[in-house]
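> call design_seq(struct)
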């Protein structure tokens, strides 16, 4: 993982450091952006998640959330706020951030290493639609909490 200026928390009695970050992008209709992982994704193919990924060495969780959002969907979150940290696998934390302002044009951007987008689809959803999607761990839970705050 490398050293990073990451969010820390106590989980199951142990100090844990976030190794991933994700952005909950909220539009003017109070919908959130979700992404479907590609069929060939090495972790949880075809599951739905948020723009996000690993925190690079020397990078803050906030910077990783912004970078990953730019890389995956060509949007740049503005004025993001830390929302929550959750364990997505034993010993692994993800830091979630929210953004209600963003710039750019939404598209599934090609990964420079792969030559094609990491994700196969995107959708803007409401709280009532959460049960219609199969999410990677913790995403449905954090989205329910986010919707409770924005509704």
């Amino acid at each position: 993982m490398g050293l990073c200026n990451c969010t820390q928390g106590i989980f199951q009695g142990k100090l844990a450091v976030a190794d991933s970050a994700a952005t909950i992008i909220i539009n003017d209709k109070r919908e959130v952006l979700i992404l479907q992982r590609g069929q060939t994704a090495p972790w949880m193919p075809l599951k739905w998640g948020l723009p996000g990924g690993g925190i690079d060495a020397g990078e803050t969780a906030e910077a990783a959330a912004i970078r990953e959002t730019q890389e995956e969907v060509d949007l740049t979150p503005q004025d993001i706020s830390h929302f929550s940290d959750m364990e997505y696998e034993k010993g692994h934390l993800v830091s979630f951030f929210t953004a209600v302002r963003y710039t750019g044009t939404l598209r599934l951007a090609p990964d420079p290493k792969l030559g094609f987008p990491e994700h196969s689809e995107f959708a803007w959803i409401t709280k009532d639609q959460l049960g219609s999607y199969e999410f990677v761990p913790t995403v449905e839970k954090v989205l329910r909490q986010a919707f409770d705050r924005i509704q």
